[in-house]
Amino acid sequence: MMDYFFTEEQRILIDLVKRIGEEYIRPKALFWDEREIYDPLPIKALADADLFGIIVPKEYGGLGMGVMEMCLAVEWLSYFCAGVSTTYAASFLGAYPIILFGSEEQKSRYLPKIAKGDSLCAFALTEPQAGSDAFAIKTTAKREGDHYVLNGVKQWITNGGLADINVVIAITDPSKGSRGASAFIIEKGDLGFTVGKKEKKLGLKASVTTDLILNNCKIPRERLISREGMGFVVALKTLDYARCGAGAQALGIAQAAMEVSLNHAKRRIQFGQPVYNFQAVSHTFAEMAMKLESSRALVYSVARYIDSGAKDFSGASAMAKCFATDQAMWITERAIQMMGGYGYMRDYLPQKLLRDAKCLQIYEGTNEIQRNVIARELAKVYK
Amino acid sequence: MERIIVCIKGVPRPGTVKVDPETHTLKRESAELILNPPDRAALEMAMRLRERYGVEVVVMSMGPPNVAPLLKEAFALGADELILLSDRAFAGADTLATSRVLAQAIRGLTPFSLVIMGLKSVDGETAQVPPETAAILNLPSVINVIDISYSNNRFYLTRETNYGEEELEVEPPLIISMNPKLEYFRPPSLKRLLQARDLSFKSMTAQDLNLAEDLLGLKGSPTQVAGVFEKVFSQRGEVWKGEPEELADKLINLLREKGLLQKLALINR
How confident is the model at residue B103 (pLDDT cuts 50, 70, 90)? Predict the structure, then answer.
């Protein structure tokens, strides 16, 4: 119904992602969800397709593309399975701190492996007592000669145990408050670094979520990203970039929900005709389409705004994430309603889409926190 | 290890093909061509060997110019060099005339260690081209291979037979055909898909290959197709339309007439 004026590169990217989705994801998505299985095969396919290299600069073996391309890849993966796209997008969450703030040594050590998909990444900020209140983290990092020693527990970390590269935010100077945290790279296999149990989730079941446990985890000084005290700056900037990706996930899920339920409504005969003929049904789809396309327009314009070199885009990316994920929740819930009993059965897709969509309103900053960010940024503009 | 050569074929997408009424051969130039599905295993195995042993992979295809997108696909999977073997004189070739062309092109790529082809093409279904090409080049051939490794100038091959798996040790060069079943096939790479947009590749004609025309195409093919016919059904199925109850009655009556429902009818009574 719409043309978003993609470049030729972007069209090739979308076609490739759709092809991977059809071949490696669609046939298994409901099975992975039902059994809560992480399957490495689609991740291998994404790696072989160079798709982990999208945001990695060319000089480190990546494609050097932008947030827009990252969003397109995430959107169309989510169309097939948001669990798989979560593994994929969370890896970017762990890669952004290195791309944006890493030293030359860190970039050349880690980025080529990330671009090739040889190493998955994870990003660890949340702790049991520090969710929305991120400044309340208790994990500490103490300098000991040429090393840092980290202690603490990180909670609900996507790709926990799968990731070779874990970016962990820890307090280096408790007296400095929000300027007292620092970002570190923890490698799988570091002494004192272990992974907790796999969490049981409502949705996104094809992805892996665990605790990360740091028990006197001793790492070389060179693993510090940027300077001491920059931890929250690194974390917040990373989230500003990645939030668009969460919005893009919402687009893919909502697109799938609308398509599957529309397909049903046009074929389901009740009272002698397709239920789509009834206004209560068709108007629901009209609403869905408007909510979906307005979300898409917003996510794409924010992604293009970031790629244009914008400096301050916290408010914009918060809007894209918050709005698109709220719409996806509404659309997936209505998709179930439009399919009636079929929508409620676990043999069909809509119930999975709804459970997957729910997480998007919570992770990478709850939608309540997004509204705080938007309101704060608004107040800066309209002084 | 010397280079690996992969031969791939474009086959008509089912439903798009027409048969030439005079020669009874497939009209390939007007059909929408797709990669012969078993050839995907040949490409995948070549790419695995390329990754493992750092060997160059050349992909060639004999066919009309519309096989070009398939060669670009092979490039996107990792092929280093592409060769299109295309000439009006090749048209209508049977397996022997095809093998002559492939053998000549392969000879031109000496030194090579391995030629990989799909087990068979899904249009011809003969599985003759790999061993026939090997015979022309006087090389060993192994068909239906499922795994390959290499060390000390020897290939260690596993092939599937009717009696189980067989392990073979072969000195290169040789020609193999791959069993189509592998547990994983890589997708094309985005980087290479972007490069493939303005990719040019070598195209070779009968003259380039120094082949005499009477050995090529329909003229050079001992196989002469006497006729092609569509399968005729002596008994056609019937489609009934109507209300479920009415159709169920009709079906039960028919089954009774045919004497297929007698026992059930007795039970019902």
Answer: very high
